[in-house]
Design goal:
By secondary structure, the protein is of the alpha+beta class. The protein has one domain. It has a seven-stranded mixed beta sheet, with helices on both faces. A hairpin with a 5-residue loop joins strand 10 and strand 11. Helix 2 crosses helix 4. It is globular, with a radius of gyration of 20 Å. About 15% of the residues have low confidence.
Length: about 290
């Protein structure tokens, strides 16, 4: 008999759901839209008073076309934008989150066949009298190689970093490799690779050095609370796991389409250690189902 649960039984990202969402017709776009909304709500509740978060608001940039020497408009659509100005203190942050698994040079990927990428000059259009500070992206299959919008996303990504805007990237797609070879590839079985990754890209950190903080976690591991940079020395700690669970539980579609009596689709695409974690979690769910607990 199928086992369907409304709440996420995994301690972190739900391996069954993520495999289902990456299947044809699995509904990744619906999950993406819902999760971005919930992330926006989360940020709105924890941001200092002099910040606010917007969902799917267009970011207008100007770029210099080196062929015509004319300025042109480039439109991009960030998933979440955080606006604000630095505050004198960061007393709202009372505890440190989990440490990153690695600190890397700032990862800025260039599209080799597009000479304008990385050499364009950008000016942020500020129609709301607020300075764009941080952007959060939930990566979609189309934005990762060899997805149809891969190069378009690279351009948008580089525009953000070149504009000295903090960029946080959430990658819960274990079946496709990340954008940069600096990140070990999980689908290729590379050592030290993680199925789920969060990158915090800081093009202008307070320490004076560009960097990318890599947070990685395996199947059934608790998702870390992470410091998200704002303006100056401001930052907030975001519990991405709690927000993920909110998205899972608020739409019964996910619970009804995940059967914990069956292995996830394309189970073989998980690393052996994560396969063991999936089987162990399934055993717990099945035992609880049998006892009614």
């Amino acid at each position: 008999m199928p086992i369907h649960l409304r709440e996420n039984p995994y301690r972190g990202v739900n391996a069954h759901l993520q495999s289902f969402l990456q299947s044809p017709g699995g509904g990744w776009e619906m999950f993406h839209a819902a999760h971005i909304t919930h992330l926006t709500d989360t940020l709105d509740n924890i941001l200092p008073e002099n910040y606010y978060a917007l969902n799917e608001k267009s970011l207008q940039l100007t770029a210099l076309d080196f062929e015509t020497e004319e300025q042109k408009l480039i439109w991009t659509r960030p998933d979440i934008r955080i606006h604000g100005e630095p505050t004198p203190t960061t007393s709202y942050r009372e505890q440190n989150p989990h440490a990153p698994v690695a600190t890397l040079p700032l990862i800025k990927i260039r599209v080799e066949d597009d000479p304008l990428t990385g050499v364009l000059i950008y000016q942020i259009r500020d129609e709301q009298e607020a300075k764009l500070i941080t952007r959060i992206e939930l990566l979609s299959p189309a934005n990762k190689p060899p997805g149809s919008h891969y190069r378009q996303y690279l351009r948008k990504r580089n525009e953000t970093l070149d504009s000295e805007i903090n960029l946080v990237e959430l990658d819960y797609l274990h079946e496709t490799r990340f954008l940069s070879s600096l990140i070990p590839s999980y689908p290729d079985g590379e050592p030290e690779a993680y199925p789920y990754v969060i990158l915090v890209n800081q093009p202008r950190p307070t320490h004076g050095k560009e960097r990318t903080l890599l947070y990685g976690f395996h199947v059934d591991e608790i998702m870390p609370a992470i410091d998200i940079p704002l303006a100056g020395e401001d930052q907030i700690s975001v519990d991405f796991g709690a927000t993920y669970n909110t998205t899972f539980s608020r739409n019964r579609y996910y619970g009804q389409h995940v059967d914990y009596e069956q292995l996830p689709p394309r189970f073989e695409r998980y690393a052996p250690a994560d396969q063991e974690r999936i089987r162990a979690r399934m055993a717990v769910v099945q035992a609880q189902h049998q006892t009614g607990s």
